[in-house]
Amino acid sequence: ARLIDEDPEGAYAYSKVALRLASRVAAVREAGGFAAYANQKYSEALAEFRAARRMTGSAELWPVMADCERGLGRPEKALDMAGAPEVHKLDKAGQVEMRLVAAGARRDMGQLDAAIVTLQSPELASNSVQPWTARLRYAYADTLEQAGRGTDALAWFHRTHAIDGDDLTDAEARAEALERAQQ
Fold it and tell me: Which of 12, 106, 160, 163 could make a disulfide contact with 115, Cβ separation 3.0–4.6 Å?
């Protein structure tokens, strides 16, 4: 877990060892899934997440499992998962993550207007700043830009940058690029 951001390949290698030694431990299966996911090994990640879910009975991995389906080129399956009862078992952060995955699946299918509608939610409109707010606003701005709505996208990139103190996104650079393009 400590290596996954800086050295995903190293994390993956360590996870393979951990899986050989403790494959019956749900946390090890989950860690193996995230290491595979970070290395875009979506089939393997999905298998590990499914195993961890069977072991724990928790739905918290549901959004990342759906995103694995997207990575495997199955956006329809990701959308099916977005409408499953497991989504109601997720906390607010998990539900927002599922909304992001569903919007991404819509984009994968070329349904930009549907992706925009998917992202429009009370969480997007809220002035409350949560750990996921910057990512949600960024996804919305990015989708607006993809749909040819540059002026709206620019406003949302600015709104994202205003709350993205940890620089999780490149909203500032995207806003500057849009401003240059509009001049």
Answer: 106
